[in-house]
Amino acid sequence: MMVKTSAILSIMDSFLKKFGKQIKVYREMRGYTQEQLAEKVNVATTTISAWETGKFFLEYPSILKLCDALEITVEDLFCFASESSLKNNSVINEIINLLKQHSPAKQKQFLEILKTFEL
To answer: For labelling, which of 29, 40, 97, 111 has a CA lying 20 to 30 Å from the CA of 91?
Structure first.
């Protein structure tokens, strides 16, 4: 069975757009502008824009730099969850980032406070 070139191009276009949207959602969750993210990944702002709009794909070293800058795993980047579920996770990520700034003793105190809330 032969797949038409147009079908392959359509699939790739759809993938690139989803992938780009994923980058944008994670960038916005971190509160970064395209300029800030570009600086962290060591690319031009136009490159970030091209990634986010699905104009072109990243090479593996750039994917690793991007994930590092966004504080996510490669798996996170390729898991196309809905935007709303990603944004819901942003609250959890914000809590985690705040906790990371405190000592283990303070983290335990926060945990004990959280345990007092009813589920």
So the answer is: 40
Retrieve residue 53's tokens. 């709009």
Cβ–Cβ under 8 Å, residues 78 and 16:
no
Given the structure tokens 């962290």, which residue do they identify? 40
Structural domains for the chain: 1-80 (1.10.260.40), 81-119 (no CATH)
Q: How far apart are CA 51 and CA 45, in angstroms?
A: 10
Percent of the chain with pLDDT over 70: 84
d(CA 103, CA 91): 21
For 59-112, where are the E strands, in sequence order? none
